[in-house]
Amino acid sequence: MDVAALADRLRAEAERANERRLLVFAGDRDAGIDAAYTALDAANVADDDVTIVTSREGFRFERYAPNHAANLLGRTRKAVVFDAHEKFSPNALGQVVGAVDGGGLLLLLTPPLSEWPDRREWFDDHLAVPPFGLDDVGTRFRTRLVETLHEHPGVAIVDVDSGSIERDGLTDPWPARPHDPPTRPETARLPEAAYDACLTADQADAVHTLEALGDPGHAVVVEADRGRGKSSAAGIAAGALAAEGKHVLVTAPAFRSAREVFVRAAAVVESMECRVDDGGDERRIETTAGGRVRFVPPVDAVERLGASDEGDSPDVVLVDEAAAFPVRRLSAFLNAPAVGFFTTVRGYEGAGRGFSVRFRDRLDESEFEVSDVTLTDPIRYAAGDLLEIWAFRVLLLDARPPVDQLVEDATPESVEYHGFDADDLLADEHLLRQVFGLLVLAHYRTEPNDLARLLDAPNLSVRALLHDGHVVSVALLAREGGLSESTRREMYEGQRVAGNMIPDVLTSQLRDETAASPVGYRVLRIATHHAVRSRGLGSRLLTEVREEVSSEVDWLGVGYGATPELLSFWRENGYGTVHLSTTRNDTSGEYSAVMLNPLSESGSALADRHSRWFRDRAIGVLSDPLRDADPDVVRATLRATDAPVDPTLSEHEWRVVVGASYGPGLYVAAPEAFRRLALAHLIDGGADLSAREERLLVRKVLQARPWPEAAEVLDYVSTGQCMRALGAAYRPLVDRYGDAVALEERERYED
Question: How many CB atoms lie within 10 A of CB 630?
Answer without folding.
Answer: 18
